[in-house]
Write a structure and sequence with these properties.
The structure holds two protein chains of two kinds.
Chain A: H1 13-16, E1 19-24, E2 27-32, H2 33-55, H3 63-70, H4 76-111, H5 123-137, H6 143-162, H7 172-194, H8 197-208, H9 216-243, H10 247-252, H11 257-279, H12 284-297, H13 304-324, H14 333-350
Antiparallel strand pairs in A: 1-2
Helix pairs in contact in A: 2-3, 2-4, 2-13, 3-4, 4-9, 4-11, 4-12, 4-13, 5-6, 5-7, 5-8, 5-11, 6-7, 6-11, 7-8, 9-11, 12-13, 12-14
Chain B: H1 5-27, H2 35-42, H3 48-83, H4 95-108, H5 114-137, H6 145-169, H7 171-181, H8 190-217, H9 221-226, H10 231-253, H11 259-271, H12 275-300, H13 308-325
Helix pairs in contact in B: 1-3, 1-12, 2-3, 3-8, 3-10, 3-11, 3-12, 4-5, 4-6, 4-7, 4-10, 5-10, 6-7, 8-10, 11-12, 11-13, 12-13
The chains are: A mainly alpha, B mainly alpha.
């Protein structure tokens, strides 16, 4: 994959065929065709889902009504329904899905393993354990995100530290992560068993993974976190693109290995923790979204933003199914993703044409 | 092979540990009956309450712990020998999850008979075992211990989610299952013991027949075949025995993870990798571990009790990490 933009001759025609090429005086600009169209498709998909999610529920509205109501136009009842209830839920779903998708993509690239996602290596469980601790001990609305951050960082440090550092350690790293996750899961159960029933009920949603009845504080924290991480991700995407060949190649191309690894880990942990503080552990989004995004991109770069978009789409779509499919019973997002994700995980492990 | 003399000391140690664990299980509890009162009651003092607690409640609980511990310890050792994978553990590979899911389905369909639960649990465990067998037959996965565990984790998490889904629809079942699904020894009736104990005993007898072929399997498939054994048949039979052991244990106490990982690990550390020795030790160490974990679960959050699965996970996670980190792992 050489990108010699200056002279046409050095690019092989077959490579150029995959790009749109734009000129402006002496500058030319290549855009991956498939990447462009998949991004457009994803945005359209997201838009449609937004409309659907706002308009469907216990009282269905037409998409137009819902859209107007979101801006405060229409019947007061509808405005209340959309603005107060559904909009918050939608935003929570979009943001958490985006965060899970991106952090999954980052960790997979970092560990050279498509199974290395926050949910599987125990980061979700760590964040959950600490968030539950904050509910049980310090019941304030902003405490969960902060403590979830601490838990996620602890779990990540344990997983990476115990498996002997990051890098291509194969599956050993992941089983260590499963162990760490089991430990934090046990701690969560311990705390839930110990407290009085009211605190336990308040903490319970954190252990399942659902978008139901969220407070505003964590959502704002997540939004701010994503805004902070976006520029960092722009920087990291370049580094990771070279890092996925091998360490020697990346070093030769001038990547500061240690620093970019550390940054990647920090961003992934930050996003996971904030997302868990909003929605609880919905681990499998982080597994599926980057895979789909890579498939859509065809060029084997690291599709960070697309992974985030796919994550957001998956999250909102799953939530939509969960609250409409069997209404009035609501199925938490975490349950649906686990039921669907189990077979998917098995398929990844067992398919014969693995690299 | 080393001489039998070396086996004597570890077995004595294990026996002493088992006796101490059993005694503490009688003496220690979350309620008002203190160890001294319990001890007095054991020796026939006229203390109505202590007598009831020790001989009715803690007795059933201790016996249950012993049977469950034997079953899980032996099942873990057998499964590890059959798959030649030091990480194979009924809880990690989805065998327990299969059993518990089957029981949850049965309960939600309205069954409440203890005997039926056991057969249902065995059927579920058999399903889980078959999946393990299937997965380890796929090329490349059987040789990689860690990928097998991942497949098991995927299977377990899926079944757990399906259980949650089931409970969402059915509040009555949810109430009944809530305490069973986390795995605990307390509050079980003596009736369940009369079902599980014979089943586990029969499985152990069948296990004796399998020990020799399994030991030869450790030398590799070719040598085992050369010695006149049929590795495929051995595997299949072993998995069936494991299904019966895990199914009975799960029906009795709910899913308790990590026992089948810790026990063979400790047994191998004490007596080496020979499956015949490991099994002897596992049958002794399994009950000790379950009883110790149970006693800890009574003490940890007094006056409440903790699910025993929490304690075993806290002990087991470091062991899992240790096994994965140990250099010898791929060879068993």
């Amino acid at each position: 994959m050489s990108f010699n933009l200056g002279s046409k001759a050095s690019c092989s025609p077959s490579v150029l065929h995959d790009f749109y090429r734009w000129h402006w005086r002496d500058y030319s600009f290549l855009i991956l065709k498939r990447g462009l169209w998949s991004a457009v498709g994803l945005w359209l998909c997201l838009l449609m889902l937004t409309g659907l999610s706002l308009s469907s529920g216990s009282q269905s509205l037409t998409p137009l009504q819902a859209l107007l109501a979101a801006f405060g136009v229409g019947e007061p009842m509808n405005v209340f329904l959309v603005q107060e209830l559904r909009l918050q839920r939608l935003v929570a779903g979009l943001l958490t899905g985006f965060a899970f998708g991106i952090s999954g993509c980052l960790l997979q690239t970092l560990a050279h393993n498509r199974l290395a996602t926050p949910g599987i290596i125990g980061i979700d469980d760590g964040a959950t354990a600490f968030a539950v601790a904050s509910i049980v001990a310090v019941p304030t609305s902003l405490a969960p995100p902060m403590l979830a951050l601490g838990g996620a960082a602890t779990a990540a440090a344990l997983s990476f530290g115990l498996s002997g550092g990051s890098g291509a350690r194969g599956y050993r790293f992941i089983v260590v992560g499963i162990g760490v996750g089991a430990l934090f899961g046990a701690l969560t159960n311990l705390m839930l068993a110990r407290t009085d029933i009211d605190s336990a009920n308040a903490a319970y949603p954190w252990t399942v993974g659902s978008l139901n009845a969220r407070t505003d504080g964590p959502i704002w924290a997540l939004a701010v976190g994503i805004m902070v991480c976006l520029p960092l991700m722009g920087y990291l995407a370049r580094q990771l693109n070279t890092l996925r060949f091998s360490e020697a190649v990346a070093c030769g191309l001038g990547v500061h290995l240690k620093r970019s690894r550390m940054l990647t880990l920090i961003v992934a942990v930050l996003l996971t923790a904030l997302a868990v503080a909003v929605a609880g552990p919905v681990g499998l989004i982080a597994l599926v979204a980057p895979e789909l995004a890579r498939y859509l991109n065809s060029y084997k770069s690291v599709p960070l933003i697309n992974a985030g978009l796919v994550g957001a789409i998956t999250m909102v779509a799953t939530d939509l199914v969960g609250r409409t499919a069997l209404s009035p019973i609501e199925i938490p997002v975490g349950v649906i993703t686990a039921v669907v994700g189990g077979p998917y995980l098995l398929w990844i492990l067992l398919r014969p044409d693995r690299r | 092979m080393e001489s039998g003399r070396c086996l004597l000391v570890p077995i004595l140690i294990a026996l002493i540990i088992l006796c101490l664990a059993t005694l503490s299980s009688f003496l220690v509890g979350a309620g008002d009956v203190t160890p001294s009162r319990a001890l007095a009651a054991l020796f026939g003092a006229a203390d109505e309450e202590a007598h009831f607690v020790v001989f009715e409640l803690r007795m059933v609980r201790t016996l249950l712990g012993v049977t469950v511990g034997i079953a899980l310890g032996a099942a873990g050792s057998l499964l590890q020998a059959a798959t030649r994978n030091p990480l194979a553990e009924p809880g990690l590979l989805g065998v327990s999850a299969g059993a518990s899911f089957a029981v949850v389905v049965a309960i939600s369909l309205g069954s409440s008979a203890a005997g039926l639960h056991i057969w249902v649990a065995v059927a579920g465990a058999l399903g889980g075992c078959l999946l393990v067998l299937l997965v380890s037959q796929v090329r490349g996965v059987g040789d990689d211990p860690v990928r097998l565990v991942l497949a098991g984790a995927a299977f377990s998490s899926m079944l757990m989610a399906m259980t949650t889904l089931l409970l969402l629809f059915d509040q009555r079942t949810a109430d009944e299952i809530r305490f069973w699904i986390i795995g605990a020894l307390g509050g079980r009736s003596a009736e369940i013991l009369s079902w599980t104990a014979p089943m586990i005993l029969c499985s152990l007898i069948v296990m004796l027949v399998l020990v020799r072929p399994l030991a030869s399997l450790a030398l590799g498939e070719k040598i085992a075949t050369g010695l006149g054994h049929n590795p495929r048949l051995t595997r299949l039979l072993t998995l069936i025995v494991v299904a019966f052991l895990v199914g009975a244990a799960t029906a009795a106490a709910g899913p308790i993870a990590f026992i089948g990982l810790i026990v063979p690990f400790a047994a191998r550390a004490l007596v080496g990798t020979d499956i015949r020795r490991v099994l002897w030790m596992a049958v002794l160490l399994g009950p000790s571990l379950v009883l110790v974990a149970d006693v800890l679960s009574r003490l940890a959050v007094r006056p409440y009790e903790l699910p025993i699965g929490v304690i075993t996970a806290i002990i087991g996670a470091p062991v899992l990490v240790a096994v994965v980190r140990s250099q010898r792992m791929p060879s068993l």
